[in-house]
TrEMBL record:
Descriptive protein name: Serine recombinase
Lineage of source species: Bacteria, Pseudomonadati, Pseudomonadota, Gammaproteobacteria, Lysobacterales
PROSITE patterns tied to this protein: RECOMBINASES_3
Superkingdom as given in the UniProt entry: Bacteria
InterPro entries per UniProt: DNA_bind_recomb_sf, DNA_bind_recombinase_dom, Resolv_N, Resolvase-like_N_sf, SSR_resolvase
CDD domains, alphabetized: Ser_Recombinase
Pfam families reported in the protein's UniProt record: Recombinase, Resolvase
Organism per entry: Lysobacter helvus
Domain Resolvase/invertase-type recombinase catalytic: 11-161
């Protein structure tokens, strides 16, 4: 920010905003109009607050305006007034009083807001206030009318069988088609069509992903497996999910089973969120459904059978933070202490919901002002320690491979990392445990993340790392370290590493027969799984057609 050079000029701040509207509202045109207004009224623009590509419906998502309203109340600010192009650039708030409220905050702090393209700015008085209110209502109504027109056009396109937005979904892909129905190209995730007169359609995606979709329906309908069991089976078999390294979960399987697009039906209007309002689901009778819009992935019989099985189950309740706090307090008042396992057996939320909302069950008890038992406090503390140690290990691995110029990808929530898109790593932490009068550390393989190598950090009660173990995937068994640090087996002793440097050396030992053998075995195993899946799909799904 620069200070005014002429003492006679009033220092002002200009606020610029542009969403995706007409060129008339570009930030360049706004700067020129504000500059002319400032020169004609003895002002000098000393600072600029700009929100480019931001909607004016709410204050949320407009960091420049938020910063401006904060600095208005700062006594050391370098401006005495604010200049905006017109009322619509200040905002298209659906409640016109909200726009007036933000302007009142500035005026109460001694900073007036000037609109250089409005006629009422030059003629103050009661009529100017009336015109300003009308202008604010017109700005809000413009957004409402534009939203209605856009939504109507999207509905018209959906009735013609076109895809109107959002990701395609697992096993599907988006393609750009010309007005005469000719497919131009496949659209990668996040990319939009390049021509305004073209449209987007859905088609079956990769053959392997389509086979996984049919396999999920077969396991659920014919084998009577639950969603969680299907997710566990896919993770154990190392079948990739839509995001790749993220493991399958029960809710992802449930989403696949309920997705009507897999039978070739184009669906529009599952939920709506008009004018930045809260998202709400649309009833089934109000949605737009166009059957036979594209080639189906699964048969209609399997899909209908899956819907009957899913419909028989009670919908999962969405527990809010306040609901969880009330549950903790009621459980503690009734039973004297809070036991999340007993609560889950009676139909309450699982421990994972408390962990997602509060960080741990102990933190949930603290938020509800409920005494924490020793076991819950220890479990919550160890969970935080494990997460911190995993992030620490992944950070120094990422720093090492970044300095060496090699590709390294890591995901802390799934405890998985990948080096050069070939060697996958699972990071785990082993705490000391007491069981059957024995004290030691148990190293258990990660079943959710089927990786080439597992890095185990052995820690003490103070969360201090004692040593590391780099265990290959072929050693699919538990290892045990006793209280003196001795291991139960020569195979585990060969995997011990004393420092992070030893861990990196073990990972980079491309000449190591163990690591190379595991990687070679993994690739051969993946090839066998792929062939088995193709063979199973040819025999399981006969009504959809031959598996590609």
């Amino acid at each position: 920010m620069s200070q005014p050079t002429d003492a006679n000029l009033v220092p002002v701040a200009q606020y610029l905003r542009m969403s995706a509207e007409h060129q008339r509202y570009s930030t360049t045109n706004q700067r020129e109009a504000i500059g002319q207004y400032a020169r004609a009224n003895g002002m000098e623009v000393v600072c600029t607050y700009e929100d480019s590509g931001r909607s004016g419906l709410t204050l949320r998502g407009r960091p420049a305006l938020q910063r401006l309203l904060t600095e208005v109340h700062d006594a050391s600010r370098c401006f005495k007034a604010i200049v905006v192009f017109d009322v619509s650039r200040w905002g298209r708030f659906q409640d016109v009083d909200e726009s007036a409220f933000y302007e009142f905050l500035c005026r109460r702090a001694g900073v007036n807001v000037h609109y250089c393209a409005e006629s009422f700015d030059c003629v103050p008085g009661p009529m100017a206030a009336v015109v300003k209110s009308i202008k604010r209502a017109m700005a809000a109504e413009y957004s409402k009318e534009l939203s209605g027109k856009v939504y109507s056009s999207l509905q018209a396109l959906a009735r013609r069988g076109f895809h109107t937005g959002g990701p395609a979904g697992f096993g599907l892909k988006r393609v750009q088609v010309s007005p005469d129905g000719r497919v131009r190209r496949e659209l990668p995730p996040g990319e939009r069509k390049s021509r305004a007169d073209d449209h987007v359609e859905l088609e079956p995606g990769d053959a392997f992903d389509c086979g996984l979709v049919r396999l999920i329906f077969h396991l659920f309908v014919h084998c009577k497996m639950k969603e969680a069991d299907i997710a566990l089976q896919l993770n154990w078999s190392c079948y990739p999910s839509q995001i790749g390294l993220i493991p399958w979960r029960a809710d992802a399987i449930r989403t696949v089973l309920r997705r009507e697009q897999y039978v070739g039906t184009n669906v529009f209007g599952l939920h709506t969120q008009k004018l930045k309002s809260a998202s709400r689901y649309v009833r089934k009778d109000q949605r737009i459904r166009v059957p036979n819009s594209f080639t189906p992935v699964v048969s209609q019989l399997d899909f209908d059978a899956a819907q009957l099985l899913v419909g028989d189950r009670l919908p999962r309740r969405k527990w809010s933070r306040s609901d969880l706090i009330r549950l903790v307090r009621s459980e503690a008042a009734e039973f004297g202490r809070f036991n999340v396992a007993a609560l889950h057996r009676r139909g309450g939320p699982a421990a994972l919901r408390f962990i997602e909302c509060f960080g741990s069950v102990a933190d949930a008890c603290s938020a509800a002002n409920v005494p924490i038992c020793r076991r819950t406090a220890t479990s919550g503390r160890r969970r935080k320690q494990r997460q911190a140690i995993k992030v620490q290990i992944l950070d120094w691995l990422a720093e090492h491979y970044r300095e060496s110029g090699r590709t390294f990808y890591c995901h802390t929530s799934t405890r998985r990392a990948c080096i050069e898109d070939s060697l996958t790593i699972s990071v785990r932490v082993a705490h000391p445990q007491v069981s059957h009068d024995s004290f030691g550390w148990t190293l258990r393989p990660d079943k959710l993340v089927d990786a080439d190598l597992g890095i185990f950090a052995r820690v003490n009660d103070k969360a201090e790392i004692l040593d590391y173990f780099v265990i290959p995937r072929e050693e699919d068994r538990n290892g045990f370290v006793n209280s003196k640090g001795a291991v139960t087996g020569n195979w585990l002793e060969q995997c011990r590493c004393a420092s992070p440097a030893d861990v990196i050396y073990r990972l980079e030992s491309s000449g190591s027969s163990k690591i190379c053998g595991v990687t070679r075995m993994l690739r051969q195993s993946e090839a066998r799984r792929t062939r088995n899946l193709h063979s199973a799909e040819r025999t399981v799904v006969k009504d959809v057609g031959a598996f590609p």
